[in-house]
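Hi Y.,

Following your request, here is the sequence exactly as I used it, all 201 residues.
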Amino acid sequence: MSPESSGRRLDAQARRAQLVAAGLELMGSVPVDQLSADDIARATGVSKGLVFHYFPTTRDLQEAILRSATEELLANLIVDPEASHAEQLRLGIEAFISYIEMAPANYLAMARGWGSDTQLGAVFEEARETVVGLVHSVLGVEALPAGLVIALRGWIAFVEEASLQWLAHDRPISRDALVGFMQATALVWLLPEALAIDALR
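Below is the corresponding structure, written out as tokens. Let me know if you'd prefer a different format.
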């Protein structure tokens, strides 16, 4: 893409979308918390000043890119509502693993908490809460019991860490085996045990 074509006049919404899309492409090779306005300017053929016109700070730019990436993930987690609960869970896990595979360095940073960076950390926290909400919707109950919410948050962390370890060690087991194990931990152990905890309150 030439600077002339990428630098053509766009409305504000289209320009922001262009800059974020460039960041999403770069995320595969550069951790999002290391992306700079210079990186985005080079990728799109516009000036760094134009990038900062739409994103006042580097963190604002990174947050917009990260938010777009997590929105894409969450959209992929919404699977066939006609499928059984077990099948919806399996499809959701597969989509989650596929997302982590695209940019493991980014997810590794997220799973480790990103230190004191509350701006980027908040985006992933919102994503995790949305995943809990999706499970809530699949179960079709009015309100999730407190014990189940705690268990789900722990299970999400387990899925994240297990996926990262699987990738870090060059996929030592098959994807199907990994997905099946994650599915079983949720359906066979987590749900019954979490509901039992609530029954004892």
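The longest helix spans residues 175-199.

Thanks again,
Q.
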